[in-house]
Design brief:
By secondary structure, the protein is mainly α. The protein has one domain. It is built from two helices and no strands.
Amino acid sequence: MTTQDEGQGEGEIRERLREIDERLAVLRDELGERAFDDVKDSGDAGAEITRMEEQNALIEVLEAEKRRLLQR
């Protein structure tokens, strides 16, 4: 069975892990600083909820990739 990162060296994996950690930190910071205070109507609230759900989904994908890389 071939995986995407099978040919990667340890340095490349460490670099990817660093990139993932940086992106996770940015996404989590963005989620933490966003509030519904500036929401003006239900359309804005819906858009904000959708954005938060999309960000959470991206965080889950990055965390899964990180776990996979760490298990190598």
